[in-house]
Amino acid sequence: MLWLGSDWQAEYINFSELKSRKIQKKIAGTNCKANRKLGEIMGYLIGIDLGTSGTKTVLFDENGENLASVTIEYPLYQDHNGWGEQEPDDWWQAARDSILQVIHQSAVDPAAISGVGISGQMHGLVMLDQAGKVLRRSIIWLDQRTARECEEITEKVGAERLIEITANPALTGFTASKILWVRNNQPEIYEKCAHILLPKDYVRYKLTGEFATEVSDASGMQLLDVPKRQWSTEVLSKLEIDAGLLGKVYESPEITGVITPLAAAETGLKAGTPVVGGAGDNAAAAVGTGVVRDGLAFTTIGSSGVVYAHSSKIKIDPLGRVHTFCCAVPGAWHIMGVHQASGLSLRWIRDTMCAPEVAAAAQRGVDPYEVMGEEAERIAAGSDRLLYLPYLNGERTPYLDPNCRGVFFGLSGMHTRAHLIRAVMEGVSYSLRDSINILREMQIETSEMTATGGGGRSPLWRQMLADNYHCKVKTIDSKEGPALGVAILAGVGTGLFSSVPEACSALIQNRSVQDPDAANAAVYDRYYPLYQKLYADLKTSFDQLAGI
Q: How many domains does the chain have?
C-alpha cells in the first residue's frame, strides 16, 4: 500500500493501481507553475546520487530548494593497474545513513516525502546470488581489464550490428564485457549469479526489494536495444547471457517500487514511499541542469568528464566515438562523449604534489581546489608550452583505447607546480573539445552549454571551456545536478509535475554566463592540433608499454 503525502489523510492505493491508472496525471493537473498552492500537497522529494567517491543524498522542498544534504565517502580498490572495484554494501550503507541524516537534519515528517529518485555511476557490475547476497566486489566504470571480452563481444555480435542495436561499439567500461570477464575468469562466481544489477539499482533493491533498472542506465550495459528501449534478445542470445539475470526496465520517471518496512526502519523513510526509476549520473545531471530539449547541452567535470547533448531523434555515430543512450525524458535520447580522467586528473595532482595548496586551503578554510585554481590563474593560457594528456585510466572518447596513459609534454626547468596545475586543467579542456567537434560533425546543435560537476564550479575552468568551445558557457543556481535531477523525476513519477521539461522549467534557474575570450581562444586554437597529434604519435608506444 502507498500513502501519498501528509495532506491526503488516509488516501491509500496499492502500487499496481498507481501504475495502471497513471495516477500522476490525475493528481498533478497540467501546470504546476500556475498552481500557487501546489506546495500544500507536494510535500518533499529525495534525490540520491551514488558517485564514485561517495554518495550524496539531498532533501528538496516543492520548489527544488535544498533543505538538507549529506555526503558519505567510501573507498575505491585498484589492486592492479587499470582495475577499479567497489563494495556494493558501502554504497548501501552510505545511502542508508545519508537518508537518515537528511531527514533528521531537516526535521521533515517522513510521511510528507512524496518520492525518492536514485542517480548513480554507470556501467558497474553487481552480481547477487539467489538470496540477494553480493557475490563479489563491483567492477566499476573506470575498470579497463576487459579488452579480450570486448573482442569476444564484437566477434559474436558483429561490429556493425552491435552499434546498430546498442548504439555503441564494445567498450571495456561497459557492463557486458565485465559479465563475460567474470564468466571467463571466475566461473565459480558466475555459476552462483542469480541477479545482475547496476550500482544505483543495488540501492533500489535494498530500498524496495525490486530487481529493476531504467533505460538511461541500462543503455550503458551494452545489452539494451537502445532504439527500441528494451533488452536485446539478439545480443543476449549471442553472448549466452540469461535474460532472467536482468531486472525489469522502466522509463526514468516511472515508479519501480516502494520503500519496504525493513528499509523504512533503516532509513527513516515511510514504508510505501514510491521510488522511481531515476537515471544514470549523466542523464540525471541533464535533468538537474534543464538539458531536456533539443539544442541544449552540458559539460560535466566530475571524476570523469562528459559532454552531453539532448536529442528528440536517435542519432548514432557509426565510428562509435561518442555514445548514444536513452535519456531520462521518455521517448528521447542523448549523445555523449565520455572522458575517463577529467576531475580525476586534478584530484591526482592535488594528492601527489599539492601539499602546500592543501595546507593553505586548510588555514583559510576553503577548498584546496580553490587555492589550486588561484595558482593556475597566475599562468598564461598555454601554460608556457606545457601540454597534458589526461589518460590516467585509458580513454573512451574519441579513441576507445584502454592502453593510453597520462603524459606531460614539453616539461622544462622553468615550469612550476602552478604550470602543472594549469596544464592539467587545459589538457582536460582539450579532451572535452574532442567531443564537441564530433557532435558538431554529427550536426547536433549545441546552442547552449551548461557547466556542471565539481570542475564546473571553477570560473577558470569554465572560461577554458568557453575559449575552447567558442561558445558561451553558463551555470545554474542549483549545485545539486544529478540529485536534483532524480528528485525531479520522482516529482514527475508521483504526479507533482506533468512532464520532465515542465518540471525543469519550473525549478531550474540560470546563474552566470561566461563568454569566450578571443585572445585565449586563439592560443588554444594553436595548441589543440598538437594535443591531438600527440595521441597519434604515442599510440604504438602506449600499446608497447601495456605489453611490458
A: 2
